[in-house]
Each structure stands twice: as C-alpha cells, then as structure tokens.
Amino acid sequence: MATTEKPVLSKYRDRMDKAVAALKEEFGSLRTGRASASLLDQIHVDAYGSSMPLTQVAAVSVPEPRMITVNVWDRGMVVSVEKAIRQSDLGLNPVVDGQTLRIPIPPLTEERRKDLAKIAGRYAEQQRVAVRNIRRDANEDLRKAQKDNVISQDEEKRMETEVQKMTDEAIKRIDEALKTKEQEIMQV
Length: 188
Fold this sequence. Notes:
alpha+beta; Gyrase A, domain 2; 6 strands; elongated
C-alpha cells in the first residue's frame, strides 16, 4: 500500500494563484479601446522557416494611448509581420513605415465592447472552474490522508475550511479582475 503524505495547502494556494495570473494574462490579450503591447502577444510570425512569436522578431511599444509601434529587427521580416498582424482576429491595420509598423487602435463599437465583455466573462468562468477543481483535488487529498490516518478528522475539517477560504479568496480576485476588465472594455 502506498503511503500518503500529509497534505500541504501551500501547493494548492500556488495553483490557485496561477489560475488568477493566467486570467490576467488572458485579459491582456483582449483588445480594449486603449493600446497595449500585450495585445500582440498572441501573434505568431512565419520567420526563418518556422512560426515565431512576434516579440522574437520585433520590439513592440506603445508611444500613444491609441497607437502601437512594432520595430522589426530584420528588414526582410516587415512584410511577414504586417501579414501576421492583418490576419490576426484583432481587426488591426498596420501602416508600414520603413522597418516600423504603426498600428492605430480604432475605437470599439458598442456591440464589439459587449462581445469583449462576454469573452472576458467566459475567461473568468474558466478560471473559476479551474479554482474549484483545485479545491476538489485538495479536499480529495485531505480525505485520503484522513482515511490513511495521516491526519485526524479534526485536522481534515480545519484544512478543508482553510481550502474553502483560499478558494473564496481566489474567486474574489477573479471577480475583481473581471469587473476591472469589463470597466476598461466599456470605457469609451
């Protein structure tokens, strides 16, 4: 019979923190009315015979609130970078200026804002589910440890309460991040 270790709650807290961080990263790729360098993080460019992230072939900066500039390091890659940005589903139209691409960020329509808010809500729900799954894993480990007499019943209940507190805290942070992102999206 395999021995059961005493469950360590910090590993579950770390996993929940990673779920919240992943949500914030996903939110970064959602287009709002303002320019953000992270908007282009998901774009891959066909470069040197393979698909590479845009950040590996160019420097992305935000000189103005509604403008992103992409400084391509290799002059021969400008066309590929422009093509990748145009083909992305972000609806952006870069303007080529030598080795620099200027990408004006058009204002969002009300309909598009609502769609983005729904997408943000979907991302948040995915992470809430992930946090709940982590809670389930933690509680299963606690039950197994109690069953194998590694921890007492009282300790199991105390730790389950702690796991629930961690879950509530993580979901609260997810909800706060969603609220902030929705406000950012709906801001005209």
